[in-house]
Each structure stands twice: as structure tokens, then as C-alpha cells.
Write a structure and sequence with these properties.
By secondary structure, the chain is α/β, with parallel strands linked by helices. 37% of the residues lie in helices and 14% in strands.
Length: 392
């Protein structure tokens, strides 16, 4: 406990031999020997590889970082009964580890019994392209799983024409055309996004990005008009996937985000995050997300084995458990739709709601893997709907 120096060479060899001869038999107390409790990486060339780590009191930050997965094994916390006043005295930017037990006590949606569909969240999803029609469908399934009251969508023409067959709950708003490269053209949305446009006062949240493809090479001026309208959009804006990539390609992402008139949620994976904030490439996820959130004013969900959520005011959350079974294509689309649907239902969308959505999504995937071994995006969307249902 509290180790700061690399393990002596003899101990490193002892632990390595033990792992080769009898793997999965070591239980670590508090922190595996030789592992940095802050970064989750070995202090030297190697560390003890535990099958189970019993950490004492609060979770050490390093134990839930992605590099620690190979060394920590299953992580369990020994509760010392720390007094509530001590926990309340922790700095506001102390990272909070989230696990499945936190879903019930979290800030999920609680609609009033007499709420109408328009009082349970009004979401517009802009997604899909000729190549990635499935991304739009999965984002819409995620949004439906959130329980939002009204769901509308702007989609590729072919998807709009068949939407009623698979998801009759979703209202197609506009059938969008594709550019020469197949990516979705957003310019027809400009009159609707304008301050006096048709969407003014009719929506609580807007999701842009899953499957729309990169920005078309032509029409830069029209695209800039869309970005200016989105900057003035006063409600929650959720950017995912190619929505993030298009913003990164435009340049000066942090400046554009900090000028937004409403709350913004970003849901990048590490490569997308690096394009948006190139100066933070390679930084530890907790620090990188917190720095980006502080400079941009956006709440950021940085996806990974143990995803991180950071708020502009310094609050941070990190998922405690990880499962490689849920690292599959399409799950990010489901997460984007689910998160946007949750945010649409909140009177004031906060980063804590984004963290709750990320936790719910991760737990639905873990339960799918444990119960049936099936973790396709469609299966996880169904599990999310069942898991979220008691909240409504």
C-alpha cells in the first residue's frame, strides 16, 4: 500500500513465475504490488498480476484506468464505513467511480404521472447515410429505449420511406439527400434551425452524427451556415460520430463549442476525441476529458473500456467495470440515441445525466453478455429498454 518505487527485480521474477505456473490464483489487497495507484500502470517493468483485487475504503483512481485491466482482475471494494461528512468534504473534482448499484440512485428520468408525451422529452435525431443506414436505426432504437415522449428524425430518403415498417413510433421529419460521396447533406435543415424556424420551441434536444458520413467536399459555405445555426441553437445538442468528425474538420472546435448558446454533450471515442482536441492526444482519459470540458464548455463522454464523463465545472465520473464483450459495432450509435433521449427528458441537461446514461448502457451490455452471451447492438438496445422501464 502506498508503494512509489518499482518492485525489486527478484519480486518481479517471483510474480511472473507465479503467474506462469498458477495463473488466476493471486488476490491483491488494496493495490496489486508494483502497480501505480494513480495511473494504473506498473511502476517498473512489471507488477503483480492479480485475479482479484480487494481495495480498501474508496476505489483508487489507478485501479479503474484501462491500463490496469490486465493487472487488477476483478475489483471489489471493502467498505470501511467512512462517515458521510468525510465523503462530503472531498473536492468537487474528485473522480467518482460508478457501478451498477448506482443506477437506481442516479439522476434518471422520473416523469410525472400526468405528463403528456410532449412533457417527457422531444428529441430530433439526424443520422444515417446511404452507406450507414443501420447507424441511424440503432440510434433511434437507443432513443426509444430512453423513454422519451416524442421522437422525430431526419434521415436518408430510403430509410424515411421504410421507417414505419420497423419503428412506427418515430415520425420522419425530412428525407435528406446524399452528396456524391454518399454522405448526408444537412443544408436543408438550415431554415428549421433558424431562430424563428419550425423547430424553435418544439424540441428539447437534437442529436447529430451517427452514420452521416464526413462533410461533403463541396458546399463549404452552406455547411458553415449550419454550424452557425447550431451554435445559436438554445437546447441540448448531442454530437456523436461523424457529427464530431465534421466539427473537427471545420477547425477551432473548442472555440465553436464555447460559443454555443445551449448545453452540449460530446460522445467521442479516443480517435474522434484526438481530432477534436489534438493537443490532448495521449493524455490520461480523466485528465484529457476534464481539460477538454473545461476549455469547451461541453460535457464529454470519452468512451473506452471504462468510459469517462467530465463536466465543464470540473466534476468527473468513471465507469468501474469493463467488459470486452460490449466492444462491438453499433453500440456507440445506441449509446448516442439513448443519451440524447435521456437529456431531452431533463429540465436542465447536466453532465450527471450523461454519466447515468453511459452507466446504464454499459450495464445493459454486461447483463446481455452474462445472461445470453449476445451483445449485438440490437440486443443491448432491447436490454436498455427493459432496464430503463421502471423509471417511467
Amino acid at each position: 500500500m502506498g508503494q512509489q518505487r518499482p518492485l525489486p527485480e527478484a519480486l518481479q521474477e517471483l510474480f511472473a513465475r507465479r503467474h506462469r505456473c498458477r495463473p488466476g490464483r493471486v488476490v491483491a489487497l488494496d493495490v496489486p504490488s508494483g502497480l501505480c495507484s494513480d495511473r494504473g500502470t506498473p511502476l517498473g517493468d512489471s507488477a503483480c498480476r492479480a485475479a482479484l483485487t480487494l481495495t480498501i475504503g474508496l476505489c483508487k483512481r489507478g485501479l479503474i484506468q484501462d491500463p490496469a485491466l490486465a493487472w487488477v482482475g476483478r475489483l471489489e471494494r471493502i467498505d470501511l464505513g467512512l462517515p458521510a461528512r468525510l465523503l462530503a468534504s472531498l473536492p468537487a473534482d474528485t473522480p467518482l467511480a460508478l457501478s451498477g448499484e448506482d443506477i437506481g440512485a442516479g439522476p434518471g428520468p422520473h416523469p410525472p404521472a400526468a405528463a403528456s408525451k410532449y412533457e417527457r422529452g422531444r428529441l430530433m435525431v439526424i443520422a444515417g447515410s446511404e452507406r450507414y443506414r443501420g447507424a441511424a436505426a440503432l440510434a433511434l432504437r437507443g432513443a426509444l429505449a430512453s423513454g422519451c415522449g416524442s421522437l422525430r428524425a431526419c434521415l436518408p430518403r430510403a430509410l424515411c420511406e421504410s421507417l414505419w415498417l420497423g419503428m412506427p413510433e418515430v415520425v420522419p421529419e425530412i428525407a435528406l439527400s446524399g452528396a456524391a460521396d454518399g454522405s448526408l447533406q444537412l443544408e436543408p435543415l438550415l431554415p428549421l434551425l433558424d431562430d424563428a424556424g419550425a423547430w424553435a420551441g418544439r424540441l428539447d434536444a437534437l442529436l447529430i452524427g451517427p452514420g452521416i458520413g464526413p462533410a461533403p467536399a463541396a458546399g463549404a459555405a452552406a455547411s458553415e451556415g449550419i454550424w452557425q445555426a447550431l451554435r445559436r441553437w438554445p437546447q441540448l445538442l448531442v454530437l456523436d460520430a461523424d457529427g464530431l468528425n465534421r466539427l473537427a474538420a471545420r477547425g477551432e472546435a473548442a472555440a465553436w463549442l464555447s460559443g454555443r448558446h445551449g448545453p452540449t454533450w460530446l460522445t467521442p471515442h479516443p480517435a474522434e476525441f484526438g481530432r477534436l482536441f489534438p493537443e490532448l492526444r495521449g493524455a490520461e482519459p480523466l485528465e484529457a476529458a476534464a481539460t477538454a470540458a473545461g476549455s469547451s464548455g461541453a460535457a464529454i463522454l470519452l468512451k473506452g473500456a471504462r468510459s469517462v464523463v467530465a463536466a465543464p465545472d470540473g466534476r468527473r465520473w468513471q465507469l468501474r467495470h469493463a467488459s470486452g464483450a460490449v466492444a462491438r459495432a453499433g453500440l456507440g450509435d445506441v449509446l448516442a440515441g439513448f443519451s440524447a433521449g435521456i437529456g431531452a427528458q431533463m429540465e436542465t441537461a447536466d453532465a450527471a445525466h450523461l454519466a447515468w446514461a453511459a452507466l446504464s448502457h454499459a450495464e445493459a451490455g454486461r447483463h446481455c453478455a452474462a445472461a445470453a452471451g449476445e451483445t449485438t447492438a440490437s440486443a443491448v438496445a432491447g436490454a436498455l429498454a427493459r432496464q430503463t422501464r421502471p423509471k417511467h
